[in-house]
């Protein structure tokens, strides 16, 4: 097949990739988070500690070398070293504030996640200093997982060793694609040569768990190139592979171009093509000994490769969010920090509030949140929800479950309801059925 295997139809179809957020990352939708509930965060922090309830930390590094055309995160490509220093100080101040609260008294993080942006944008020295300061405030000796996201071109051998030394157990490499042409077209800063180099450094450093991120459906992706990407992944043989299907939110450069040209459909593969690409990748990975463990992940050793961050968070654990635009969850309250760099740093320096919006969820919303997020793992266990929330999901959703069973979307195995592979790859389009009526048409922003 040639590069023209995937040809975008002239006519827009229902399955084209339209602008907007498609994936469900949380519940209730972000558009319901509000200013009115912000005081709930402080009042929770002043309430007694829930003892040994699981606690996580999310640390947001908002810097990148270059803005990818599909990026919808709050990132900065123009900050100098004094801006970075100022930011790191502000986040440490934020962590100190949390650590002094009665709600966190006597608790230590069980999982820590450095996301972005590009955490590996920071130098080895900055990272070592930052993590030492974090550990002085809230020790990591009970952390079972420390995840760190990297852009391959920002790594050096020394930096990878420093990352290992401060305790990272899971290194996630944002490779996205192995074609230099596609990386360039999509505005990525790195090239494939840097990927192979970085991967080897991570292996040589003995990092426990290496993950590779790919995106199915980048600008100019083709069948041939996608197959080659999968071959490269199999050659590298990482512990885990995460494959996202390209979405085009409104705040991306791709959307700005579409808008300028008056187009409703994005110039990327349609949804059936992206799902086919992920399905092909999963099949190949399975042929090579991997197991598919969620809508976007395949792992080599499911018994050894755990995802504390995802599983604890999706199970309702507390997570303190640090940094600009970070999302946290404490005692059933969702919250997000201020989304502007200057305002965030200034507020921390002046000891002013930094939460921008929050949502005090109801018990019912917490049940739905866990129920829909756990479907993304490919299966749910009704007894878990009965024990934790006292809700019989089978009775509550009988119509939907019977319908799914009839359509072959779901198979029941006593206490386990398993999604078909086809349904798993489009699970986000199915989950709205479980939303409360007033959340049904909400936008995920
Ligand atoms: S590296 Fe990630 S966070 Fe940075 S611009 Fe690209 S997609 Fe956005």
Task: Itemize the secondary structure elements and their pairings.
Elements (H helix, E strand, L loop, with lengths): L37 H8 L9 E7 L19 H19 L11 E6 L7 H14 L7 E6 L6 H9 L4 E7 L3 H6 L6 H13 L4 E8 L6 H14 L3 E6 L7 H8 L10 H17 L3 E2 L4 E3 L8 H7 L3 E5 L4 E4 L2 E5 L3 H9 L5 E6 L2 H13 L3 E2 L1 H8 L3 H4 L1 H9 L3 E4 L2 E4 L1 H5 L20
Parallel strand pairs: 1-2, 1-9, 2-3, 3-4, 4-5, 5-6
Antiparallel strand pairs: 6-8, 7-8, 10-11, 11-12, 13-15, 14-15
The structure holds iron/sulfur cluster.
Iron/sulfur cluster binds next to loops.
Keywords summarizing the entry:
alpha/beta, pyruvate-formate lyase- activating enzyme, Arc Repressor Mutant, subunit A, 9-stranded mixed sheet, 15 strands, globular, disordered N terminus, binds iron/sulfur cluster
Number of domains: 2
Query: What Rg is obtained from the alpha carbons, in whole angstroms?
Result: 22 Å
Overall form: globular
Give the CATH superfamily of the largest domain: tm_1862 like domain
CATH class group of the largest domain: Alpha Beta
CATH third-tier fold name of the largest domain = pyruvate-formate lyase- activating enzyme
Q: For the terminal residues, how far apart are their CA atoms?
A: 39 Å
Class based on secondary structure composition and strand pairing: alpha/beta
Give the neighbour order of strands across the main sheet.
7-8-6-5-4-3-2-1-9
What does this 3D model show about the protein?
By secondary structure, the chain is an alpha/beta fold. The protein folds into two domains: 30-312, pyruvate-formate lyase- activating enzyme, CATH 3.80.30; 363-445, Arc Repressor Mutant, subunit A (Orthogonal Bundle), CATH 1.10.10.920. 37% of the residues lie in helices and 17% in strands. The chain has a nine-stranded mixed sheet with strand order 7-8-6-5-4-3-2-1-9, sandwiched between helices. A hairpin with a 2-residue loop joins strand 14 and strand 15 (416-419). The radius of gyration is 22 Å and the shape is globular. It starts with 37 loop residues before the first helix and ends in a 20-residue tail after the last helix. The model is unreliable at 1-10 (pLDDT under 50).
């Amino acid at each position: 097949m040639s590069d023209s295997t995937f040809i975008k139809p002239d006519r827009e179809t229902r399955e084209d990739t339209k602008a907007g957020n498609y994936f469900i990352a949380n519940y209730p939708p972000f558009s319901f988070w509000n200013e009115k509930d912000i005081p709930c965060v402080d009042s929770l922090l002043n309430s007694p500690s829930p003892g040994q309830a699981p606690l996580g930390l999310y640390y947001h590094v908002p810097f990148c070398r270059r803005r990818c055309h599909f990026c919808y995160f709050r990132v900065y490509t123009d900050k100098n070293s004094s801006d970075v220093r100022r930011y790191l100080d502000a986040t440490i101040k934020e962590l100190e504030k949390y650590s002094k609260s009665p709600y966190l008294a006597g608790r230590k993080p069980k999982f820590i996640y450095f996301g972005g942006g590009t955490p590996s944008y920071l130098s080895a020295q900055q990272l070592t200093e930052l993590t030492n300061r974090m550990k002085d405030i809230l020790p990591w000796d009970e952390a079972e997982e420390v995840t760190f996201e990297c852009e391959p071109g920002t790594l050096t051998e020394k930096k990878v060793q420093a990352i290992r030394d401060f305790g990272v157990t899971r290194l996630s490499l944002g490779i996205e694609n192995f074609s230099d042409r596609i990386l360039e077209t999509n505005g990525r800063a790195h090239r494939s040569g840097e990927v192979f180099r970085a991967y080897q450094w991570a292996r040589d450093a003995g990092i426990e768990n290496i993950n590779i991120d790919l995106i199915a459906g980048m600008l100019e992706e083709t069948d041939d190139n996608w197959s080659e990407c999968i071959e490269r992944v199999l050659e590298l043989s990482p512990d885990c592979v995460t494959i996202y299907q390209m979405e085009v939110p409104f705040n991306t450069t791709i959307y700005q171009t579409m808008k300028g040209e008056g187009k409703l459909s994005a110039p990327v593969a349609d949804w059936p093509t992206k799902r086919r690409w992920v399905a092909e990748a999963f099949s190949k990975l399975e042929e090579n000994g991997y197991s598919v463990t969620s809508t976007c992940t395949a792992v080599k050793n499911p018994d050894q490769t755990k995802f504390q961050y995802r599983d604890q968070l999706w199970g309702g654990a507390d997570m303190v969010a640090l940094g600009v635009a970070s999302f946290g969850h404490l005692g059933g309250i969702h919250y997000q920090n201020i989304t502007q760099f200057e305002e965030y740093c200034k507020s921390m320096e002046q000891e002013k509030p930094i939460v921008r919006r929050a949502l005090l969820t109801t018990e019912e919303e917490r049940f739905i949140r866990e129920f829909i997020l756990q479907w993304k793992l490919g299966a749910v266990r009704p007894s878990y929800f009965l024990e934790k929330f006292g809700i019989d999901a089978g009775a509550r959703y009988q119509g939907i479950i019977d319908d799914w069973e009839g359509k072959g979307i779901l198979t029941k195995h006593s206490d386990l309801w398993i999604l078909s592979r086809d349904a798993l790859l489009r699970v986000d389009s199915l989950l709205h059925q479980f939303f409360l009526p007033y959340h049904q048409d909400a936008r995920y922003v």
